[in-house]
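Long-time lurker. I teach an intro course on protein structure, and each term I like to show students one example going from raw sequence to a predicted 3D structure in token notation. This year I'd like something fresh instead of my usual example. Would anyone be willing to generate the tokens for the chain below so I can use it in lecture? Attribution to the forum is fine with me.
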Amino acid sequence: MAAPAPRPLEVRFFRNINGREPAREWLQGFSTEEKKIIGADIKVVQWKWPIGKPLVDNLGQGLWEIRTSLGDRIVRVFFFVQNERIIILHGIVKKTQKTPAQDLKLARQRQSLCEQPTEQTNERKGTKTEKRNPPHRK
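-- Reply from a regular --
Happy to contribute to a lecture. Here you go:
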């Protein structure tokens, strides 16, 4: 029997070539109370992974989303798990029923960069860097 993963799983943020962590920067735009709610949901995933709905949904190809309700708004935090680490890739406030294609594409691009071993890997964060600036967010 395989040994269980260490708990809690470590959480890392995707880092681009400029050293920025776009998902962390996005999260910092929320109020202190909202950050606590989102952080609590991330913490549940850290301790209870693997976990499913209603908190976490599988988007396919190893990409997952944490689903947080902030009253009148719905937040999605896209992540994948690599080497016993949760790598947070991107986040959105949902405005429609369907997740916008450009946000899924961006999360998958970042996931792909992290999964491909190259000399561009950021050893401190354990994640790969983007080779270009990420698309502008609205």
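Some talking points for your students: Residues 32-48 form the longest helix (17 residues). The CA atoms of residues 17 and 129 lie 5 Å apart.
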